Amino acid sequence: MHFHRDDLAGLESRYRAALVNSLTGFKSANLVGTADEHGQTNLAIMSSAVHLGSHPPLIALVIRPDPVERHTLSNLLASGCYTLNHVRAEWLEAAHQTAARYPREQSEFAATGLSEGWWPEFPAPFVREATIRMGLRLREHQELAINRTHLVIGEVTQLELPEDCLREDGSVDLESAGSLALSGLDSYHATRRLRRMAYAKPDRPPRAVEGPAD
Amino acid sequence: MHFHRDDLAGLESRYRAALVNSLTGFKSANLVGTADEHGQTNLAIMSSAVHLGSHPPLIALVIRPDPVERHTLSNLLASGCYTLNHVRAEWLEAAHQTAARYPREQSEFAATGLSEGWWPEFPAPFVREATIRMGLRLREHQELAINRTHLVIGEVTQLELPEDCLREDGSVDLESAGSLALSGLDSYHATRRLRRMAYAKPDRPPRAVEGPAD
Questions:
Q1: CA of B139: which chain A residue's CA is closest?
Q2: What DSSP character marks residue A202?
Q3: A170 vs B4: CB contact, 8 Å cut-off?
Q4: Which of A80, A98, B153, B194 falls between 20 and 30 A from B102, CA-CA?
Q5: CA-CA distance, A61 to A169, in Å (whole number)?
């Protein structure tokens, strides 16, 4: 099937949202934890985390100014801190449920049964059930003129993960950590490693360093 | 294991790159196709595609100004057009090999054996072997002050995908399309759907609309 620009513009809006949200391919599934100045917590599922750089470790999030994501946005702009927590299969229903439009005074932690954890002197809650979780400090924020979504850039200043997920070269075995992938607006996927590839060089054929996961 | 900010800053640079590139979770695996004004083609694997909006359909890419990605960047800034092509298991080695530092005058299509396809009046090549492929027109570009990476925003103006991957509600079954997920710098993963969840509402418990893929 071939869609041109006008075909896409002419689609019914929910159909178009489901289609276009699928086009980037698989996405990360993270819960973003924040708190307001009174300690009222908020949790929201997001699939827009993107690697920006390693030194310093920077991650960007695209946040929509809609009823669900704007609590997260206003909290992190005020406190300057937020957490990212990889979603696991055991509680994907609770993670997805954070997308519901709860009123500001209701915490998604309480509503979904997930547990708050706190690091010393870090004013945003992490998800205790998450095996990979990190704290970020806001470094840059802008509203994108093109469609008024917000680009939020943070530096990772706290990172917790299980030792047995960390390989010798520093890479993380996301499968043994139980991290999921997301597609479209609502599909959650487990993964199975096919191959790890060696660093690519122009004068050498591609070469796998590891095959399928055990 | 707990890493603080100073721990991360003190890591050996390749180790830190492998670690930090793993932190966002699973990522999309796309080949970005471009051509220069003489029709010299370029192909580069990228995992930074992120959904920005559906109406118009906008996708952002983070592009690094390094030797590999700058050919893509200069081509798409000059032509205003580029393609995104979902990577499949059958040719993931070729896709990964596009990350090698080939000289500008060598096309990664020729070097890796992937085939160029062209749409009428669209000056960037797609990958014939890709079942999901799209053409984008550049809408916005900025260098991010924080680390000099480039944020490139494009509008999807061409989209090709197999009819049997498109569900009735507009969402795409990425598994039946054969799209892969990427983690870290070098790991390629197939996926297995666990659940599709219904639209979340505050007054209703989470509910699956579909279970595991057949």
A1: A146
A2: T
A3: no
A4: B153
A5: 26
Q: Would you say A119 and A81 are in contact if contact means Cβ atoms under 8 Å apart?
A: no
A113: which chain B residues are within 8 Å (Cβ-Cβ)?
none
- In contact, A23 and A6? CB cutoff 8 Å: no
A162 to chain B, closest Cα gap in Å: 6
B19 burial level (CB within 10 Å; 0-12, 13-18, 19+):
buried
Q: Are B77 and B154 in contact (CB under 8 A)?
A: no
Question: d(Cα A136, Cα A60) in Å, to the nearest integer?
Answer: 10
Most confident of the ranges A179-188, B58-67, B99-108: A179-188
Class of domain B26-190: mainly beta
Residue of A nearest to B97 (CA): A200
Q: pLDDT class for B214, splitting at 50, 70, 90?
A: low
Decide which of 3.30.565.10, 1.10.10.10, 2.102.10.10, 2.30.110.10 is the CATH code for A28-210: 2.30.110.10
**Does the beta-carbon distance from A157 to B29 stay under 8 Å?**
no
Using the beta-carbon criterion (under 8 Å), do B171 and A187 form an inter-chain contact? Answer: yes
Cross-chain Cβ contact A186/B171 below 8 Å: yes
ipTM for the predicted complex comes to 0.96
Q: What's the CA gap between A56 and B146, in Å, rounded? A: 10
Contacts of A78 (CB under 8 A, 6+ apart): A36, A37
Of the candidates A187, A199, A206, A211, the one whose C-alpha atom is nearest the C-alpha of residue A25 is A187
Q: How far is A74 from chain B (nearest CA, A)?
A: 19
